[in-house]
Specification:
6-stranded antiparallel sheet; alpha+beta; single chain; 7-stranded mixed sheet; Arc Repressor Mutant, subunit A; globular; Elongation Factor Tu (Ef-tu), domain 3; 624 residues
């Protein structure tokens, strides 16, 4: 017999599949990872970066729970930036430019050194189903493989079709075959399937770019990280660059519109609203004379560059001509053109919050098969599916995160209750509890949960306890220690804020927007002993303590709102309620609520187009 009996089979080794397989195996389950190409595990098919607005919070949550994406991203980073630092900490978002090849290779190394995990390079063309229970998978070469649970993470490979101008051919990614058979079988079992579209830009030979004409975008001076573990950071960073299209570039691109699969109707699937192709942007924003582009290195040593913002499915010659009219790219050479890809997905309202399907017991979906876009969203779903497959096998309650506990909770709840009709991407605006769900406190929110599940190690848990005991010690010191005018007024005057004329609590001083904790250290006795920058996570402790003091009132208020809304799931709404009378609701919310006539506030919150902010408006109006 070629295969033994497995507990869990994971199909696909993209970002969702890798996290699902790692979680399932690390929890002690005999796991098999099936992929069509073992050389592209966790491949960065699109931009070579991890994190960004809201996505960075997801990666830190994955890490706190015991997942692997943050560790791999940190070890392969070539640039680190904390986005939104000019705004409040609720929206600070870490982003890492990664070495694309190293990222995939390190993921493979992590998986190959994970106990309980086997591999099989093959194509899964069917599930083995008995009644309404999954029993395993059928592969093209190996035949039947049996397991108690199956996690499908097929990415863009289900009946994938690639478009470049008038050329159309089968593929799940350029140079790789599509997966056929699964969609048809699932539809025969009663599942609904639809099509989506995504795309990618040209890849450019960096030797042919005139970087002197581009704006350099360096990494942060203080190199941060995703993982809450103590990992080495790179000594040198590689810069990204900013370029711009022009009206001339737009005019050249328009010459290919008549051959564009996007405009001729050959592409039926809906593309991502917030990451459109360049031709889509020109069409939608016809009054704009230019668009910003980001020129990103694909690795530490490679000459290949990724032109973020120039995704296209136009004919190659049109892409090339337009590219050469962008300042700095007059002599550009390309490795391959951009392309669009259409693929099957399954609307996620067919899933439970555990990501198990309604129709087939033991079958889980994770990643782009659920209509999401982005490495981070996929990895989060894979982690949750791997955990919940384990929970199902052990007759335990599913592991489900609430919206006030994690961005992962927001992601899953949005998918299940609102479903999707376009590629879903996470934004901070999707979370109603942004002050609670900060990137800095993901470990405080989730490490204990990961430890209880069995993914976060004892070493990680001890480190977490040590860190937060120090944070609490520092917060207590700031709240209970006075500072004299002669000690602190020099700093206050330097920062152009009012001096004090009598002693005052350090916490009161720190609440001033002009003051930060690092700057206070030289002026206050004993503060330098507590703020130990030489310790492994000293800067994290200082940052966390400062946020807890500065934003204490906002944090407590948002926690109260979260607790209140958690009790509002069954608040009744009248079917005759006049939503148009509430001007604070968005117009889309008024239209959708009037159309659907929800019976409860909980139902209203799950209607696509009704945002968390709209629900808060309704709750306030109802006096709840």
């Amino acid at each position: 017999m070629l295969f033994e009996q497995y507990d869990i089979i994971v199909v696909g080794a993209g970002h969702a599949g890798c996290e699902a397989a790692a979680a399932a195996a690390n929890l002690g389950n005999k796991t098999l990872l099936v992929t069509m190409n073992m050389n592209f595990m966790a491949a960065m098919s699109c931009n070579p970066a991890v994190g960004g607005i809201a996505k960075g919070q997801i990666v830190r949550e994955i890490d706190a729970l015991g997942g692997q994406m943050g560790v791999v991203a940190d070890k392969t980073m070539i640039q680190f930036r904390m986005l939104n630092k000019s705004k409040g900490p609720a929206v600070w978002s870490p982003r890492v430019q990664s070495d694309k090849a190293e990222f995939s290779a390190l993921w493979r190394h992590v998986l190959e050194n994970t106990p309980n995990l086997d591999f099989w390079q093959d194509h899964v063309d069917a599930l083995i189903v008995s009644g309404d229970v999954v029993r395993g998978v059928h592969t093209s070469m190996g035949g039947d493989v049996y397991a108690k649970c199956v996690v499908l993470t097929n990415g863009t490979f289900l009946n994938g079709t690639i478009h470049i101008g008038e050329k159309t051919f089968s593929g799940g990614r350029i140079g790789e075959n599509a997966s056929r058979g699964l969609t048809e079988q699932l539809m025969s079992l009663g599942f609904e399937s639809q099509r989506m579209k995504t795309g990618t830009p040209v890849r450019i030979d960096g030797r042919s770019i005139d970087f002197s004409k581009l704006a350099e975008q360096k990494g942060d001076d203080i190199i941060g990280h995703f993982s809450f573990l103590d990992l080495d950071t790179p000594k040198e960073q590689r810069s990204c660059y900013i370029a711009y299209t022009s009206q001339k570039v737009h005019d050249i691109l328009k010459t290919g519109f008549e051959k564009s699969p996007l405009f001729t109707g050959r592409i039926k699937g809906k593309g991502p609203r917030y990451c459109p192709s360049i031709e889509d942007k020109i069409e939608r924003f016809s009054g704009k004379d230019f668009h910003q582009l980001f020129v990103e290195p694909e690795g530490r040593t490679t000459i290949e560059y990724y032109l973020n913002g120039f995704s296209s499915s136009l004919p190659e010659e049109v892409q090339y001509k337009a590219l050469r009219n962008i300042e700095g790219f007059e002599n550009a050479k390309i490795f391959r053109p951009g392309y669009a890809i259409e693929y099957d997905y399954f609307p996620p309202n067919q899933l439970y919050h555990s990501l198990e399907t309604h129709k087939i017991h033991g079958l889980f979906f994770a990643g782009q098969i659920n209509g999401t876009t982005g490495y981070e969203e996929a990895a989060a779903q894979g982690l949750m599916a791997g955990i919940n497959a384990h929970k199902l096998l052990h007759d335990e309650e599913p592991f489900v995160l609430r919206r006030d506990e994690a961005y992962i909770g927001v992601l899953v709840d949005d998918l299940i209750t609102k479903s999707v009709d376009e590629p879903y991407r996470m934004f901070t605006s999707r979370a109603e509890y942004r002050i609670l769900l900060r990137q800095d406190n993901a470990d405080m929110r989730l490490t204990e949960k990961g430890y209880k599940i069995g993914l976060a190690t004892h070493q990680r848990y001890e480190r977490f306890l040590d860190k937060y005991s120090k944070v609490n010690e520092m917060v207590s010191f700031l709240k209970n220690t006075n500072v004299l005018p002669e000690q602190i007024n020099g700093l206050l005057l330097e920062k152009e804020t009012s001096p004090i004329d009598k002693k005052m609590r350090l916490a009161q001083i720190l609440t001033r927007p002009q003051i930060n904790l690092l700057e206070m250290i030289p002026f206050v006795d004993k503060l330098d002993n507590i703020c130990d920058l030489s310790s492994a996570f000293g800067r994290e402790i200082i940052e966390e303590a400062e946020i807890l003091v500065k934003y204490e009132g906002y944090i407590e208020k948002e926690r109260e709102v979260a607790d209140k809304l958690n009790r509002l799931e069954d608040v009744k709404l009248s079917p005759d309620f006049d939503y148009y009378s509430l001007q604070s609701l968005t117009m889309e919310a008024r239209e959708k609520l009037t159309k659907h006539k929800p019976q409860t506030l909980g139902q209203a919150s799950r209607i696509s187009g009704v945002s968390p902010a709209d629900i808060s408006v309704l709750a306030v109006f109802l006096g709840r």
